[in-house]
From TrEMBL:
One of its GO terms (biological process) is response to tellurium ion. InterPro entries: Stress/Tellurium_Resist, TerD. Residues 1-185 form the TerD domain. CDD domains: TerD_like. Gene3D superfamilies: sav2460 like domains. It holds the Pfam family TerD. This is Chemical-damaging agent resistance protein C. Keywords: Tellurium resistance. Transmembrane segments: none annotated.
């Protein structure tokens, strides 16, 4: 049974699954009734170094940059509608390939052109992030975003990291950004020039 996380909570995935080396973060959401204009939510990963910024622009993994330079983080593809059951988008993290200078991997979801379309997470329901062990397909941890984020067009869902003891951990973040993808990416040190 998966550990259910609350905002700010964390769990050792290594204790849940000894020998863990690779996980997939499944992200899902539903769009509430809207004015009929399509919502396109996108998952992304920021590979953060010791400076608390991305190691390089290539360490921002999303629909236009599907794989990190070392192949440790891979974007699973763009679902433009969020329709259907199960995960809408996925990001795979292979800790065996992840370089030692990586402090953490932030997993975010943004609303494509959210500010321009006046769309935000207030119109999104049932949003979640779940961590799956790639070795056996078992869900290890889940974070259901329940709080109202009605002004935010971007959300950091979870972060994954290695503890000082070498354990792989996940922490529930649930932090919103009104400025959408551009503001979030800029805040993480991505050069959007």
């Amino acid at each position: 049974m998966a550990v259910s996380l609350v905002k700010g909570g964390n769990v050792s995935l290594s204790k849940e699954a000894p020998g863990l080396t690779s996980v997939t973060v499944g992200l899902g959401w539903d769009v509430r009734k809207t004015d009929g204009q399509a919502f396109d939510l996108d998952a992304s990963a920021f590979i953060i170094g010791e400076t608390d910024k991305v190691i390089s622009d290539a360490h921002f993994v999303f629909y236009n940059n599907k794989t990190s330079p070392d192949g440790s983080v891979v974007y699973g593809g763009d679902n433009r509608t969020g329709d259907g059951e199960g995960d809408d988008e996925t990001i795979k993290i292979d800790f065996a390939k992840l370089p030692a200078d990586v402090k953490k991997v932030l997993i975010a979801v943004t609303i494509h052109e959210g500010a321009e379309r006046k769309q935000n997470f207030g119109s999104v329901s049932n949003a979640y992030a779940r961590v799956i062990n790639d070795a056996d397909g078992k869900e290890l941890a889940r974070f259901d975003l329940s709080e109202d984020s009605s002004t935010n067009a971007a959300m950091i869902f979870v972060e994954l990291y290695r503890s000082a003891q070498g354990e792989i951990k996940v922490k529930a973040i649930g932090e919103g950004w009104e400025s959408g993808l551009a503001g979030l990416a800029g805040g993480m040190g991505v050069n959007l020039g």
